[in-house]
């Protein structure tokens, strides 16, 4: 494939969801056609990203690997530009494949839950996916920052979709934390990087090693970590559980398809292509910064343990699991980078299965608390089987995709070259978190399958008969099945994501 053809694919990856959103916006009175256009757009985008991946795999020539499209250059040397890279392809494939699953699921959920403003939902979802593609294929830090902000703005109306007081309150927390942290931390960090290095281009080995005094490496990296609050580091994590007032497909967008993954993807790119892992290790910047994700991993797990609201428990689980990825980046060794990068994929497919299951429970039974789930496994066996598979993958057990990312993260932790106290703290923290993960997640399907059904409260609609099956709409079940099957498949054949992630360890 020529460089021109690759450039066309890059343009299409961003343009297709935008064009799709415009078409969808005109189909408010044609519901079936609207949803068909959504699915067609999602599938087309996935095929484009697969084509980009195959081109990178089959053509290792420099003109393909470094294909670059410049949209604008407002200041000399500071361009809005995109390029195809293996790591960007990994993120784009994850997001576009899950958009297909989420679109199918959303058809059943939005109809079954009688959500209002469904056309607006599909339009904004497509625009958000376009922002994700721009982040994935960003050629420099300026482009990444620009579309990182666009992603925040485009997802705000989705968070406040229901229009209730609770939704508006959650939306305010969402926008204030994400935009505030970007302005206070991310933007100054980017300006400092530009000032000291004269460029914001992503480069192999980083751009700061010969330009930044070693003593300033940790403070600058700290600005980036807090500035990219989509990655969910404490104490800037509150936006994530606050946004759980949104419809379940939006929760899936936030936790698996787009927002949080854009955060950890950005952190990984900055660690590898702006700082460089060698520079971080040599300066010791990670020796104390690594405590931030470690504390978040453990504290978020304890908080999740206490949450009875199912979506809130899953939200704090996400906060914890995101910090596994940041931990992998800050280990600054090959296994850590590989494990963190693979966990972007493995967590995405497993966690979206859990949120889909939570939404299916809400649609079918109107229940949203863990304490209400006793016996529901007998009337919703498919839903709770999906939940079990997603849970076991996130825990990192064999026969599920999450095992491989946890394997490399543990290997990276064992190879950590920092202070001995920090080394043992990392291993202890991971062990504690794994135990807590097992309890607060696995207890949910265990309760559903093995506890006796709870009696309906006075005035509450009864669920199905004890011997009957009452699952969510078929579209929800199909949407749930897709990431669940992929989660199982990735244990036996993780090579696609392994190859894409391993490119970061060879730089």
From TrEMBL:
<feature type="transmembrane region" description="Helical">
    <location>
        <begin position="6"/>
        <end position="24"/>
    </location>
</feature>
<feature type="transmembrane region" description="Helical">
    <location>
        <begin position="376"/>
        <end position="401"/>
    </location>
</feature>
<feature type="transmembrane region" description="Helical">
    <location>
        <begin position="314"/>
        <end position="332"/>
    </location>
</feature>
<feature type="transmembrane region" description="Helical">
    <location>
        <begin position="421"/>
        <end position="442"/>
    </location>
</feature>
<dbReference type="GO" id="GO:0005886">
    <property type="term" value="C:plasma membrane"/>
</dbReference>
<feature type="transmembrane region" description="Helical">
    <location>
        <begin position="253"/>
        <end position="276"/>
    </location>
</feature>
<keyword id="KW-1003">Cell membrane</keyword>
<feature type="domain" description="NADH:quinone oxidoreductase/Mrp antiporter transmembrane">
    <location>
        <begin position="138"/>
        <end position="421"/>
    </location>
</feature>
<feature type="transmembrane region" description="Helical">
    <location>
        <begin position="174"/>
        <end position="195"/>
    </location>
</feature>
<protein>
    <submittedName>
        <fullName>Proton-conducting transporter membrane subunit</fullName>
    </submittedName>
</protein>
<feature type="transmembrane region" description="Helical">
    <location>
        <begin position="144"/>
        <end position="162"/>
    </location>
</feature>
<dbReference type="InterPro" id="IPR050586">
    <property type="entry name" value="CPA3_Na-H_Antiporter_D"/>
</dbReference>
<feature type="transmembrane region" description="Helical">
    <location>
        <begin position="36"/>
        <end position="56"/>
    </location>
</feature>
<feature type="transmembrane region" description="Helical">
    <location>
        <begin position="288"/>
        <end position="305"/>
    </location>
</feature>
<feature type="transmembrane region" description="Helical">
    <location>
        <begin position="215"/>
        <end position="233"/>
    </location>
</feature>
<comment type="similarity">
    <text>Belongs to the CPA3 antiporters (TC 2.A.63) subunit D family.</text>
</comment>
<keyword id="KW-1133">Transmembrane helix</keyword>
<feature type="transmembrane region" description="Helical">
    <location>
        <begin position="121"/>
        <end position="138"/>
    </location>
</feature>
<dbReference type="InterPro" id="IPR001750">
    <property type="entry name" value="ND/Mrp_TM"/>
</dbReference>
<keyword id="KW-0812">Transmembrane</keyword>
<dbReference type="Pfam" id="PF00361">
    <property type="entry name" value="Proton_antipo_M"/>
</dbReference>
<keyword id="KW-0472">Membrane</keyword>
<feature type="transmembrane region" description="Helical">
    <location>
        <begin position="76"/>
        <end position="109"/>
    </location>
</feature>
<feature type="transmembrane region" description="Helical">
    <location>
        <begin position="472"/>
        <end position="492"/>
    </location>
</feature>
<feature type="transmembrane region" description="Helical">
    <location>
        <begin position="344"/>
        <end position="364"/>
    </location>
</feature>
